[in-house]
Structure formats: C-alpha cells, structure tokens
Amino acid sequence: MLPASAEHFRRSSELIPGGASRGRFWWPAPIYVERARGVSLHDIDGRTYIDCLVGFGSMILGHAHPAVTDAVAAQVALGTVFGAPCVQEEHLARLVVSNVPGAERAVFVGSGTEATMTALRIARAATGRDVVAKFEGGWHGAQDFLLHSFTETDGELTAPRAVPSSAGLSRSSSRDVVVLPYNHDAALVRIRDEAHRLACVVVEPVQGAAGGLPTEREFLERLRAVCDETGVLLVFDEVISGFRLGPAGAGGLYGVTADLVTLGKIIGGGLSIGAVAGRADLMGRVASREGRPVAASGTFAANPLSMAAGVAQLSVLLDDPDTYPRLAVLGQRMRDGLRQVLAAHGIRGWVTGVGSLWGLHFSAESPRTVRDLATASPSVARVLAAYLLLEGVVMSAPVHLGFLSTAHTEKDVDLVISAHSSALKRMKEEGHV
Questions:
Q1: How far is 155 from 1, CA to CA, in rounded Å?
Q2: What distance lies between CA 225 and its chain's CA centroid?
Q3: What's the half-sphere exposure (Cβ side, CA atoms, 13 Å) at 92?
C-alpha cells in the first residue's frame, strides 16, 4: 500500500537501528512525511492524512502556521545560533512566567528530557538530598533517574519497586529513585516515610505517554499538602500538558501549584526546546554566586530559532481567550464519539484524557493507573494505528494517544471518529480485537 515508504524504510534499516530514530511508534513500518500544513500530512507515496499526532503534541496551531513559519524564516535570515543570548529569550520567558502558576523565573534548555534533568539538579541543590520520587507510568524523558517503571511494574500496588525502563541504566540510578503508586494515597505514606532523603516528587498531572491518564484532583491536592508538610519539593512535568490544557497548564486546570514546572513541546513552536520554571529562590540556584551553581546550559539552549518560534506560537495561542474552550469542546467531541464507536461495535475499550488530548485503551477495566493497563494487548493498539493509516488518519502506537490543534475542525474530528469505526469494524471481522 505504501511502496515508497516501505523501500525507504528498507534502506534506512541498513543504517539506522530499527530503521528510524523514532521507529518504535510505527508498525509494521513508518510512513515518511514529505510535507505538512494545518492538520494534513502528505507522505512520499502521495497519500494525505488527518494528523492526530501533531508532532507528539507540539504543533498546537497545526503545521506550518504562518505566524510561526514567518518568525522562523525571519530569524534564519538573521542567524540560527550565536552563542551570545538573543532578545527573544526574554520575550519567551515573560510569556512562561506570566502564565505558569508559581513561576517567577524560567531557564531554557534543549529538550524536555534536559528540563527534567535540570529540575532534579535544582531540587537536590536546594534540599541537600539525593533521592527523587516518581510515579509508575510517568514518562519524564530519556534520562537515567526517572526512566523507571514506565510500562513495567513490580512489587505490591501500595509499595512498588523501581523497574529500569531501558537497558544500560546504572544500578546507582535505581537506588536513588523511589517509585510511587499513581492516584493512590499509599504514595503519600511513602513520601512521609522517605522524606528525610527525598529531594523532590515528580509527577505528570496527566500521564501523557501512558495514554492520557489524568491525576485525580483530590489526590494532587493531597500530594501538594504532604510535600508542604515534609519539605519535599513538588515538580510538575508539564512537557505535554503545558500550554495545552490552558495558559496555566494542568496546574491551573487543577488549581494546584508546584514548586518547579518543566515545559517543552508547545513552547518551542515545533523546534527543540525545554524549560524549567519555578520560584525565584529555587531557580536562582542556576546562577548562584554563593557556592556552586546548578548546570543548565548547552550549545542550543535558548537558540534564536526555538525562541522565535516559541514566542510566535504562544503569542497566537494566547491572543484569543476562546482558543482553549474551543479545543476542550473538540476534545470532548472526540472522546464522546470514540466511546460511541466502541459501544456500537461491542468492543471493550476505554477512552481517557482531558482537554484536547485523549487516549484509547483496550484493557479489562477502565484505567486509573498504568497497572490497570497490564491486561491490554499492545498488538491491538499497533494494529489499530496501522488500519487508521489506511483510513487516512495518523495516530501513535503502541500507546494510542491523540492530540488536537486549533487547525482541527468539527468535520475533522467526525472524520477521525468515522475512521476509528471503520478500522475497528475491520479489526473485529479479522479477529484482531
């Protein structure tokens, strides 16, 4: 069906492990995109798709938005990286600090992974403690300390053990991470017990890479309270949810303020970026003149292209107060429609998510945590993503996580719902689900 992509994948497999640096998201082989505009992707086989991946959530205005492309083009003509700072860094920092709850300062790095690494360093420097805590199912980038218990779990529900989520992690990293049960008050007990050695607790208010599993508001409030009680810093990983669920992200949506917030994706306008924002006393550790400062830098940190693209995208996004309400309505339309499709075909499945993101799961029970997904077959999600390509829709796999942009319309959403119906009907007829 996709001969040009298949041939390109074959040749790439001779050079690149897995055929593509992000090949794990595609089965049986990736499509190769030639160009994109709005919600449309065009591959090298001449096919067009409605994109529900939108750069893993980064392209909230859709692809090639004129304001963003114009800003990038103008900056390319002036230079792409200077070493010296550019004025757009202040502009982007002001947009971040003005909107993220509790943020008084922000520093920019090269990616979301680097942002979480920097947040851990700040927390350790501020508390003098080495150990960090994270939740089962939380994805915080490809960095050793938090790359544990993402999909695999071990131990009792109330007392999880850290499971490395990659080969090659140092054993010391596993010793310095405490893994907590998501959406379970046993986590609060564990934090109290471990507080004497915990620098921080890192949590995604909505677990994106687990398929859009929201943290329960009351649990997040209790988590904030126990961190206040014990002096453990609370870090929100909002690389996915930041500026997607609203100007104030998930923290604003839930009404809970973290000590530090990590950001990425949307704030870069489609270019590589990461950021840490938080209280001035904590962020001051990055440029401290008293003792050793926290390292937070890199050749491409706060580079002019990412800064220009980020300022352009956030400026458009924040200009219209109806933007986020419209996105939320579209997201609810998608989730309701997918639930109706599952019911119509008699397929046991669950739709999760909030705002303009959603997840689709084929587990035995409605999932609150990644442990609830242990009964779900990853092959079903992979096959669904492949069948959706045949229906003209791009989704990720094996985690079925979707995003909407301001370029999506009600018609687009209804077409995506219809594509799911056709794909699932065919899968059921062929015995895949």
A1: 45
A2: 25
A3: 34
pLDDT, tens only, 313-354: 999 999 999 999 999 999 999 999 999 999 999 999 999 999
Percent of the chain, pLDDT > 70? 100
Amino acid at 199: A
**Alpha helices in 354-409, H assignment, sequence order:** 378-390
Averaged pLDDT of the chain: 94
Residue 87 one-letter amino acid:
V
pTM of the model: 0.95
The Cα–Cα gap between 178 and 190 comes to 9
**Residue from 92, 124, 370, 371 nearest 242 by CA:** 92
Contact 213, 201 (CB under 8 A): no
Q: Report yes or no: 177 and 162 within 8 Å, Cβ to Cβ.
A: yes
Determine the pLDDT at residue 371. 93
Residue type at 326 in one-letter notation = R
CA 97/CA 103 separation, integer angstroms: 5
For 169-328, strand residue ranges (E) read 177-180, 198-203, 206-207, 213-214, 233-237, 260-264, 274-278
- The sign of the torsion formed by the CA atoms of 223, 224, 228, 232 equals positive
For 163, how many CA atoms within 13 A lie in the half-sphere containing its CB? 15
Give the integer Cα–Cα distance in Å for 106 and 98.
11
Band (pLDDT 50/70/90 cuts) for residue 415 is very high
Residues 6+ away with beta carbon under 8 Å from 153: 136, 160, 163, 370, 371, 374
Give the dihedral sign, CA 265/267/273/278: negative
Give the pLDDT band of residue 129 (cuts 50, 70, 90).
Answer: very high
